[in-house]
Design brief:
Distance between the termini: 84 Å
Shape: flat
Structural class: alpha+beta
Mean pLDDT: 79
Number of helices: 14
Largest sheet: 4 strands, antiparallel
Radius of gyration: 28 Å
Length: 409
């Protein structure tokens, strides 16, 4: 009887092993590396990659049915995958993994904070509200940078101030305090960033201005950072017009208060022009051209698509598009100039505060807008002299892009 039980058990084990061999999950990461759309033969092809793709297509749905084998793949470029991969019978379901919302960011922060000693004042909910648009990898990097900030000041725990500094470094770029700038360029940058900040405080649909600095960060030599109060998934017309006006604030401040023009507004102009052109050609936000898409469609001949651009606009329509873009830009430029000229006292106060403290945040901006004397920043350490010109700050270069949601100018 014992021998019979062992034989029966052996049969059961063999049966289970046979079932396991016919079942399984295959995960292919970065499938666009081998599943890129097959080209039209222009410029030569990649035979090795296409042979791999063809073999994969045969195995996934060939003469032999692989029942019980589930194929899962991941990519961040679904637009270039071959159409044969995405048809029903191969990859039947597509799951889009979007950026986490505020609740998701808080949960992700709780996971990464377990690896570091966190202080009592650290609130993951507050950090999650101040990091819109960040992915899980960004939040992991934020925790690592905060730990480094705490280590540099020889602290035993990571406090809220470390997370704030780490967030500024990730969003605005690392500080470059070793740069020496002339006093004139330093003053020009202070007025330039004050122009952005003033427009951001006065216009209703602009995101709240979080911090303004004339310390060079990343490739920018001055940054105005705005943070939205909540996650934003779409943009309305007034918001986009206010963004254009805010972008023009820097150049207008240079003209009004410094009587000069610098190259610092080049990136601002580029972004403002792109927003205005998208409003006209993509989003149908003008009465003159109506709800139609006028943007040119660019083909990709190496992927078997159109050989050239398809232009659906006549020359008269192109002229109307240019006129509408010019009208939007001129109107917002005029609005921003009027606001800056009418609030020159606040502009001088902001520029002076930045020359003294180099970085001001929402508290100092609120004091200035209310007509009060701004209080010093919490982490400000007095220097001797306080406004010396050697410059840890900047003048005219393009500011760092950030976007859509936190924005910098």
């Amino acid at each position: 009887e014992e021998l019979k039980k062992l034989v029966d058990m052996d049969d059961v084990v063999n049966e289970s092993l046979d079932r396991v061999e016919n079942h399984g999950i295959i995960f292919i990461d970065e499938i666009d590396a081998v599943g890129r759309q097959r080209g039209a033969g222009l410029g030569g092809g990649n035979d090795e990659r296409e042979q791999t793709l063809n073999q994969m297509l045969v195995e996934m749905d060939g003469f032999e049915t692989n029942l019980g084998v589930i194929v899962v793949a991941a990519t961040n470029r679904p637009d270039i995958l071959d159409a044969a991969l995405l048809r029903p019978g191969r990859f039947d379901r597509q799951v889009y993994v979007t950026l986490p919302d505020i609740r998701g960011r808080e949960q992700i922060l709780n996971v990464h904070m377990r690896k570091i000693p966190v202080g009592q004042d650290v609130n993951p909910g507050v950090i999650a509200r101040g990091t819109p648009g960040m992915s899980g990898a960004d939040l992991a990097n934020l925790c690592n940078e905060a730990a480094l900030m705490a280590a540099r000041r020889n602290a035993r725990t990571v406090e809220m101030q470390d997370f704030e500094k780490a967030k500024d470094k990730i969003i605005m770029g690392p500080e470059r305090k070793s740069m020496v700038m002339p006093e004139e360029e330093r003053r020009n940058t202070a007025y330039h960033e004050a122009g952005h900040a003033l427009i951001g405080k006065l216009l209703p649909k602009c995101d709240p201005v979080h911090k303004v600095t004339i310390i060079p960060r990343g490739r920018a030599l001055g940054v105005t950072m705005s943070l939205p109060e909540k996650d934003r998934y779409s943009y309305d017309k007034e918001f986009m017009l206010n963004q254009i006006a805010m972008l023009f604030g820097g150049r207008i401040a240079e003209e009004v208060f410094m009587n000069q023009m610098t190259t610092g507004a080049s990136n601002d102009f580029e972004r403002a022009t792109q927003i205005a052109r998208d409003m006209v050609t993509r989003y149908g936000m003008t009465d003159a051209l109506g709800p139609m898409v006028y943007a040119e469609q660019e083909g990709e001949p190496f992927l078997g698509r159109s050989m050239s651009k398809t232009n659906s606009m006549s020359e008269q329509t192109m002229q109307k598009v240019d006129q509408e873009v010019r009208r939007i830009i001129d109107e917002q430029y005029g609005l921003a100039r009027k606001l800056i000229e009418d609030n020159s006292d606040k502009m001088h106060a902001m520029a002076k505060a930045m020359l003294d403290w180099e970085t001001i945040d929402a508290e100092q901006l609120d004091d200035i807008m209310a007509g009060r004397e701004p209080r010093p920043p919490k982490d400000w350490v007095p220097r001797n002299p306080p406004s010396s010109g050697g410059g840890n700050s900047s003048g005219g270069t393009p500011a760092v892009d950030a976007d859509p949601a936190p924005t910098t100018a």
